């Protein structure tokens, strides 16, 4: 909801133009378009700071590298008067306890639904038209927030979906219940469909690790008009035996790639075969064997070989072997471009935020910041956070992207 003509936010932005900070004009109203939809969990009586103002300040603080409630409150307290006014903050800024209570009481899944829908809109607006061949792929994977473990309960576990190419987060859901959290990754299976329910999956390729190679999952994706590429490991022993028993030696390599990165020489080859019948997995159209051979780039040491099997419902005319290889490898974007970034840039695994919905909401704030930075063309998230921390106007300006 845009600010009205008499809004103090708009007036503050006009003042900023006079002092040479024109980048902030219109920024806060755009941020409000996403955050104003979040339901305030507080009783109306006694509310000093509107929810949208508290959330706007929290997002900007996280964009400046804040990792805790205290860090958010300190960033807000140090804001110059004009920047605070642009955020809609009054003379008395929200303190740590206010920020903590708001974040802990927010409905984490509803909050994530709002911001993920906004990110999806921004991605759709900036993404070039998809060509005649399928190009959109998303990866699903879970992450345990290790710092949330305590004596009475296991750590929180979240399941997220990320766009392969843009590397932005399109959704995240809590793996709810103490039983599911105690089961660790196994609790992700029940959360798979609810997570993807909010996305338009028509003609989208979904990738996931072997945990999600489930008959119920592929039936669900088939009903939603999606396609899938799933790895097969020990949780599907019969299927893996069938795939390993195919006549791979008689087949030629369809695609081979070699590269040297991070001190390692790696050669990847892929073979793909059409499945006529007899594979015990619904909707499967092709079987895939991906072989990785690696050794130190120095040339010393033995080659290490790993063979991975996968299945897909895509037929040969729908996906070339090179595309299948890209999707299988691209699935790990969710580990490298999201989970690893949150751990390194935000020290998420060391975070002591563990009460209420706080862990999930803080993770969603990090996802939001990372996604916006990606849409802005940022490739080094840690460097972007440092840059934002040096100037309080920069986090606000970043949210002006459309």
List keywords for this structure.
alpha+beta; 16 helices; 18% strand; 9-stranded mixed β-sheet; 402 residues; 9 strands
Describe what you observe in this structure.
Residues 33-119 form the H repeat-associated protein N-terminal domain. Residues 136-370 form the Transposase IS4-like domain. InterPro entries: ISAs1_transpos, RNaseH-like_sf, Transposase_11, Transposase_11-like, YbfD_N. This is ISAs1 family transposase. By secondary structure, the chain is an alpha+beta fold. Among the domains are: 8-107 and 365-398, no CATH class; 224-324, no CATH class. It has helices spanning 8-18, 27-35, 51-63, 69-77, 81-86, 96-105, 108-126, 178-182, 188-196, 215-223, 237-244, 321-330, 333-346, 358-375, 381-389, 393-398; strands at residues 137-145, 156-163, 169-174, 205-208, 227-232, 255-261, 264-274, 286-296, 304-312. A nine-stranded mixed sheet has the order 3-2-1-4-5-9-8-7-6, sandwiched between helices. A hairpin with a 5-residue loop joins strand 2 (156-163) and strand 3 (169-174). Helix 4 crosses helix 6 and helix 6 packs across helix 14 (358-375). The chain is elongated, with a radius of gyration of 23 Å. The two termini are 15 Å apart.
């Amino acid at each position: 909801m845009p600010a009205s003509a008499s809004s103090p936010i708009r007036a503050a932005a006009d003042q900023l133009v006079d002092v040479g900070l024109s980048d902030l004009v219109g920024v806060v109203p755009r941020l409000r378009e996403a955050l104003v939809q979040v339901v305030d969990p507080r009783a109306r009586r006694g509310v000093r700071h509107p929810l949208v103002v508290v959330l706007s300040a929290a997002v900007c603080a996280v964009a400046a590298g804040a990792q805790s409630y205290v860090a958010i409150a300190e960033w807000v307290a140090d804001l110059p008067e004009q920047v605070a006014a642009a955020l809609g903050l009054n003379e008395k800024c929200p303190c740590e306890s206010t920020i903590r209570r708001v974040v802990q009481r927010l409905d984490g899944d509803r909050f994530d639904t709002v911001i993920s829908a906004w990110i999806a809109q921004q991605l759709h607006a900036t993404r070039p038209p998809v060509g005649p061949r399928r190009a959109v792929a998303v990866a699903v994977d879970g992450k345990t927030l290790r710092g949330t473990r305590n004596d009475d309960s296991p750590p929180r576990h979240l399941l997220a979906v990320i766009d392969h190419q843009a590397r932005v987060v399109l959704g995240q859901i809590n793996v709810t219940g103490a039983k599911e959290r105690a089961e660790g990754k196994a609790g992700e299976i029940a959360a798979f469909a609810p997570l993807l329910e909010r996305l338009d999956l028509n003609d989208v390729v979904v990738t996931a690790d072997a945990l999600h190679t489930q008959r119920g999952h592929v039936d669900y994706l088939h009903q939603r008009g999606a396609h899938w590429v799933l790895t097969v490991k020990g949780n599907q022993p019969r299927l893996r035996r069938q795939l390993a028993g195919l006549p791979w030696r008689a087949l030629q390599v369809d695609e081979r790639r070699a590269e040297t990165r991070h001190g390692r020489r790696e050669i990847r080859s892929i073979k793909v075969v059409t499945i006529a019948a007899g594979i015990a997995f619904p909707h499967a159209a092709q079987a895939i064997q991906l072989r990785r051979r690696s050794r130190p780039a120095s040339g010393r040491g033995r080659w290490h070989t790993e063979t991975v099997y996968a299945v897909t419902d895509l037929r040969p005319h729908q996906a070339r072997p090179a595309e299948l290889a890209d999707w299988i490898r691209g699935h790990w974007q969710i580990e490298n471009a999201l989970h690893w970034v949150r751990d390194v840039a935000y020290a998420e695994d060391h975070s002591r935020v563990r009460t209420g919905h706080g862990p999930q909401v803080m993770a969603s704030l990090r996802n939001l910041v990372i996604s916006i930075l990606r849409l802005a063309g940022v490739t080094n998230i840690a460097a972007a956070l440092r840059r934002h921390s040096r100037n309080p106007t920069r986090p606000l300006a970043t949210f002006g992207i459309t």
